[in-house]
Amino acid sequence: MGLKILDAKKLELENEISNEYFYDFFETSDQWIRSRTGIEKRFYAEESAAEMAVSVAKKLKFDKDDIRLLIVPTFSARHPLPAVSCVIHQELKLSSDCLAFDINMACTGFIGALILAEKYLQQGEKAMIIATEKISSYLNFEDRTSAILFGDGCAGVIVEKNHKLWFSKQNTFGDVEALKLNEEEKLSMKGKDIYRFAVNEVSKSINSLLKSAKIDVKDIELALLHQANSRIIEQIALRLEMDLKKFPMNLNEQGNTSAASIPILLSENMNRIKERDLVLFSAFGAGLTLCTVLMEW
Questions:
Q1: Pair type for strands 67-73 and 99-103
Q2: The CATH number of the domain covering residues in 166-296
Q3: How many CA atoms are closer than 13 Å to the CA of 288, on its beta-carbon side?
């Protein structure tokens, strides 16, 4: 059991949105946003979620005949049909034996896709996972608490099934009001509730997984967490009694890119991870859902 991440790539977007951009919509300031979220800027894409996903897929290194599974975590695709995964499949001319589908777990999606891939693949088989989000199409620019948080983004990985250490934990908490699209298809969230949920439940999930694996927290080399808010990550590190340096963050430059946040972060930190390192992944999102993975590199 386990997965090896063979490659990770992200899409470089050009339309940079600074905190000052929001001055025209509601009362706020650069200092207010930074102090509460850690975000300095984010990017809004000109391309659709599907177009971004195809671009990232073409950057990854793989043999198209080797891909047995293709998963696209996204909640922001322009069209419900066909699935973004099938658009990628067609563009790349992948094998007809490849199973392709999208999943909607919002911010939890990439880790959920890793768990699904690990369970589906046989030893030596490979999968492609592309997380793509165009959240800017769903922002409510009358809501200061949510509009400032999100950016667009896309990143993906190629994984191979192996027999190295792997532990995973997944939970659904049945709270559909905390983060959702409202009747106007705009994001609505209960920020304080989500903050408390993330700090409490992510810490519990990681501790539970480490206990099951009989791994000391000091042995973890890197912890890649969903990039929702810098204060959430700081509080989780504090509760776990882990060095904050083991929690890379790119919130200041990307904002919250939902399912794309962890693969973007991973693509930026691949050079920090060595063979046999123990790496943690954890993400939470609408639903509310939570997935955590501990893997040996």
A1: parallel
A2: 3.40.47.10
A3: 19
**Catalytic residue chosen out of the listed positions 89, 98, 256, 291:** 256
Token readout for 132 is 């793509």
Class of residue 30 by CB neighbours under 10 A (exposed 0-12, middle 13-18, buried 19+): middle
Burial readout 81-116 (b: 16 or more C-beta within 10 A, e: otherwise): eebbbbbbbeebebeeebebebbbbbbbbbbbbbbb
- Cα–Cα distance between 85 and 98 in angstroms, integer? 11
CATH of 3-161, one of 3.30.300.20, 3.40.47.10, 3.40.190.10, 3.40.50.720: 3.40.47.10
DSSP state of 33: H
pLDDT by residue, tens only, the chain of 297 residues: 899 999 999 999 999 999 999 999 999 999 999 999 999 999 999 999 999 999 999 999 999 999 999 999 999 998 888 999 999 999 999 999 999 999 999 999 999 999 999 999 999 999 999 999 999 999 999 999 899 999 999 999 999 999 999 999 999 999 999 999 887 889 888 989 999 999 999 999 999 999 999 999 999 999 999 999 999 999 999 999 999 999 999 999 999 999 999 999 999 999 999 999 999 999 999 999 999 999 999
Q: What residues does each domain of the chain span?
A: 3-161, 166-296
Verify whether residue 226 is a known catalytic residue: yes
Query: Is 107 part of the annotated catalytic residue set?
Result: yes
The encoded tokens of residue 47 equal: 């391309």
Q: Are the C-beta atoms of residues 91 and 100 closer than 8 Å to each other?
A: no
Active-site residue (options: 98, 107, 154, 291): 107
Active-site option among 19, 98, 154, 226: 226
